[in-house]
Amino acid sequence: ETLKPKAFEPKGLLELRKSHDLVITGRSLEVALQSDEAEAVQGQLHAVQIFARLSPWQKEQVIQAVRKNEQTHALMCGDGGNDVGALKEADVGLALLSGFGNANVGGGENDQLAKKDDVKDAEDALAEQRKENAQKAQAMSKKANEEMARKRRDLMSRQQQWVEEELEARRQRGEDCGVMGQMSAMKAVMGRLKNEIKKEQDQMQKKHGNAFAAGAAKWAGEMDQMEDTPMVQLGDASTAAPFTTRTPSIGACVDIIRQGRCTLLSAVQQMEIMMLESMISAYTMSTMSVDGTRPSEAQMMASGTLVSIASLAFSFARPVDRMHPVRPLGSVFHPAILFSMLGQLLIHLGCMVYIAGLAKDVMGEEAIKEIIEFEKKRNEQIDNMDEEAFNDWAWFMSVPFKNNLLNTCCWLMETSQQVSVIFVNYKGRPWMKGMLENQPLFLSLFACIALVAVCAWGKFPYLNHILNLEVVPEDLRSQVMITLAISLFGSFCWDRLMVAIFAPHIWQVMKDEARATTAADFLPLLKTVGYMFGGLIFLGTGNPILWGLAFMMYRNYKKGQEAQAAAAAAP
Fold first, then answer.
1. Rounded to a whole number, what is the distance in angstroms from the first to the last CA of the chain?
2. Which distant-in-sequence residues (6+ apart) come within 8 Å of 350 by Cβ?
3. CA 167, 173, 175 angle in degrees (round to 5)?
4. Contact by Cβ (8 Å): 348, 276
5. pLDDT digits over 26-55, tens only?
6. Torsion over CA of 406, 409, 414 and 417, rounded to 10 degrees?
C-alpha cells in the first residue's frame, strides 16, 4: 500500500506518532529549525523516535529541547568526538568504546538476533546477545592464553642457550666464570627472560586488545582471524561522559538504569530505616532515663553490633537481571513512605510504652526507687573516675550495674523493633534482589530475633549475665512476645496499606512478585542454613582432620567403584 505524503505540521507530531514511527534526518531537522515554526518544532521533538545523521550541534539541540519541553532527564551515549557536546548536555552521559565501527547497527543477514522468533522484547534480545558474547569472550580468552603459554614455553626452552651465551661473553671479557660468575649469568638471563615475556605480553595486548571487550562483541569476527580483532581504545567521548562502558554495546544504557534504580531504592530505604531506628533509640533512652534506669554498655554494644551487621548486609543488595517498567519511589517525602514512617513510629512507640508500663507494674514502686538511688550512686562513681581509667576499652566492666526488669524489657523491645524496621522497609524485587536472595541480611535478622527470644526465656544464663539482663517472668513473657509480634506485623501491615493507598502501581507490582514466589526460592537459603549447621556439627563433634581424611577415603573408594563398573561395562 502506497502512503500519501502529508504536509509537515509541527503541532500535529504528537497525533501522528500514535499511528506512525517518526524518523527525521539532520538535513530535515536543520530546515525545520530555520523555519518560522522553529519554536513549535522544538516543543514537539520528543515525539520523534529516531534521529539520523545529526551534526554535533543538532544533537545538543535535541537534548536541550527534550529536557526543556518534557521536564525530564535525558541519557546520551556515543563513542566519538562529535558526541562530546551532547554527552555534556545530557543528564547522564555514557561513552562507548571506539574502534568497533558500526557495532550497534543491525546488518540484515548478519543480524542473528532479528531472526530469532523466541525473543519477546528488546531486553530479552540483549540478554541473548550477552550470553553469546560471553561465550565468544571465553573462547577468545582461552585461545589468547594458549598462544601466550606457547610463547612462554618457547622462551623457557632458550634459557640454557642464553646461559651459555652469557658465560661465553663473560670469558671473552675476562670476567669470573666460577660459581659466582654462573650466579651472575643466571641473574642476567632471568632479567632477559622477564623482559622477553613482558615484550610478548605487550605485543599480545596490541594485537588482540582487551580480550573481554573484543570477544564479547559479535562484530569481532571469526576466532581464527584474531589478527583482525579491533583494538580496544578509549574514544574522545570518554573525556566528556561520567560513565564509560568496557564494551561497545548500547545495552550498557539498560545496565545504568537498572543499577541506578537499585541505588535509588537502596538509598531511600536506608534513609527510612535510619530515621525510624534513631527515633526508636531516642525514645527508649528517654523512657528509661525518666524512671532512673539506663541501658548498660554491654547491651548497647550487643544491639549496636547486631544491627550494624544487618545494615552492612543491606549493602549486599544487587540489581535484578531485568529492568521493570514500573519505577520505584524516589523520595522519603512521598506520601506512601512518609505516612508509613509516621504510622510505624506510632506502633513501635505504643508497644514500647505498653511493655514499659507492664514491667513497672511487675517491679513495683519500691524496686523502681532502689534503681533510681543506685543509678545516682553509679553516676557519682563515674564522675569521680580518673581520665586515665577511661583509656581502657573495658572501663565499664569496673562500674557496677543493677539488673532490672524494666531495662530488660525495654532493651528486648528496642532490639526487636530495630530488626522489624529493616525487615518491613526492605523492598527488593522487582528492582533489586529480594529478602530471600539477600541471604546475609535475612540470616542476620533471623539471628537478632533468635537472640531476643533466647534472652527473654533465659536459656543461656551466662549470656544474660554478660548482657545484664534478667529472665522475663513467665506471666509477663507471653505478653512481651505477643507485643513484639504486634510491633512487627502491625508495622508491616501499616506499611503495605500506605503503599496500596498512595502508590497503587507499586502495590500491584509487589503483589505480582509475591505471587511469583515459589518454594524453590527458599532452597538456596535453606541450603546456606544447612551448610552453617553442618559446619557447626562438623567442628563440634570431633577432630576436623579425621573427618577430612574420612571424606577423602570415601571419595577414593567411590572413584574405584566407578572405574570397576566402567571396566565391566566395556566390551
1. 69
2. none
3. 65
4. yes
5. 888 888 888 888 888 888 888 888 888 888
6. -150
Q: Which cell numbers hold the place of 322?
A: 531485568
Q: What is the pLDDT at residue 398?
A: 64
Query: Which cell goes with 415?
Result: 532490639
- The SS3 assignment for 53 reads coil
pTM for the predicted model, two decimal places? 0.68
Residue 400 phi/psi, 5° resolution?
-65, 150
Number of H helices, E strands in the chain: 20, 5
Q: How many CA atoms lie less than 13 Å away from 93 in the CB half-sphere?
A: 22
Is the bond preceding 328 in cis, omega lying within 30 degrees of 0? no
Query: pLDDT below 70 — which residues of the chain?
Result: 1-3, 97-122, 133, 205-236, 247-248, 291-292, 389-399, 535-547, 565-571
In terms of Cα–Cα distance, which of 85, 80, 79, 31 is closest to 63? Answer: 85
Taking alpha carbons only, the member of 5, 64, 72, 4 closest to residue 33 is 64
**What is the overall mean pLDDT for the chain?**
77
The one-letter code for the residue type at 395 is: W
CB 266 within 8 A of CB 314: yes
